[in-house]
Amino acid sequence: MNSSVVISGVGLWTPAHSITNEELVDSYNAWAEQYNALHADAIEQGELEAKPLSSAAFIEKASGIKSRYIYSKEGALDIDRMRPLLSPRGDDEVSHQAEMAIAAANKALAAANKTPADIDMVIVSCAYTQRSYPAIAIEVQSALGIEGFGFDMLVACSAATFGLQRAVDAVKAGTAKGVLVINPELTSAQVNYMDRDSHFIFGDVATATVVELAETCQSDHSFEVLSTKCVTSYSNNIRSNFGYLTRVTDEDPYGADKLFHQNGRKVFKEVCPMAADHIESHLNSEGIEISQLKRWWLHQANINMNLLISKRLLGRDATLEEAPVVLDEYANTASAGSIIAFAKYHEDLQQGDIGVICSFGAGYSIGSLILKKR
Q: What is the per-residue DSSP string for 41-83?
């Protein structure tokens, strides 16, 4: 019996709406000018700071991002609102996030040549879930007609790789025969569109993967999971304080600190070497040389971070074939970024080719999987 575990299918669901840097900057600058005009006296007296203006060129240079997809574009560019507008759904309706998850899950199942009957475990792993309970994973499980169990995981931008490690462990242990790991990243609800330094970072998307034993795999493109590795190290440099305790602390539930915020310079300085060391030590533990890697499916947060990490490992700049970039189109999609890269750039690999999926983010958290094309 072949007991190796494989990723047999991957699904990518992309929202219908997108926002370019130019659109985003036009909206932000109009809001900033309105804010500065309304608070001119306080700004002049030093009681408030004027809001700085932005540019599309600044965003692309700082991040490599040119556009981002968004689940609901309505309201996001309205200077009197500055956040997306979603219609509330009743308890008996499919939730927004589950809708995204189901769409990606169906694509992954089709790629793996599987039906819901082949799955008995569902993990929804992402940066945010829209409610505490019942778990989005259980809602998705019910909607797809999957018998078994499901649960949610929140590990910020590393949620997808952490979820995949849990799936691999479950299949190895025999506690699941087939696992759906889904990453419905509805990040736009947590974006501060009134902050020049972060309003451009995130986009919405949903990805999904199917994990199973090699002996049950029926897909055209599958990858043996040679090894997984996850690590966390506590840091406050990437944070969102939104939570249920706000009700009893009497704070503004939608204040700036309740949305995504970070110390970008510290994150860049600290995470890049951590991620490079993590990948190198993971490969070394499996006796794999960096030169043996055909593909790097890296977390898509910032192009400069990825360039630095790959250069530190390779001793040179990685080519786009070696380390595909999707953040120019998708922006930072939290945990889904590395899976988007995998979804779009895996079919060209040949049998025996080795690649690494790696994500890193708040926590700090870093997760990686070493894969071999079957």
A: HHHHTTSSPPPPP--HHHHHHHH---EEEES--TTTT-TTT-S
Nearest Cα residue to 75 out of 34, 153, 19 = 19
Find the catalytic residue in 157, 217, 230, 272: 157
The pTM assigned to this predicted structure is 0.96
Residue 283 host element (H or E): helix 264-285
Two tokens, residue 105: 């899950």
pLDDT band (50, 70, 90) for residue 3: confident
Task: Please report the beta strands in 255-363, taking only residues with DSSP state E, as ranges in sequence order.
Answer: 261-262, 293-298, 354-361
Distance, in Å, from the CA atom of 158 to the CA atom of 126, rounded to the nearest integer, reads 8
> Within 10 A of 334 (CB to CB), how many other CB atoms are there?
31
Q: Which of 26, 80, 31 lies closest to 51, judged by CA?
A: 31
pLDDT digits (tens, 9 = 90+) for 322-370: 999 999 999 999 999 999 999 999 999 999 999 999 999 999 999 999 9
Q: Catalytic: 217?
A: no
Separation between Cα atoms, residue 38 and residue 31, nearest integer Å? 11
Mapping DSSP to helix (H, G, I), strand (E, B) and coil, where does residue 210 land? strand
DSSP helix/strand/coil, 99: helix
Instruction: Let me know: does 184 contact 98? Beta carbons within 8 Å.
Output: yes
Provide the pLDDT confidence category of residue 30 given band limits of 50, 70 and 90: very high
Coil, strand or helix at 227: strand
Cα separation, 38 vs 32, whole angstroms: 10
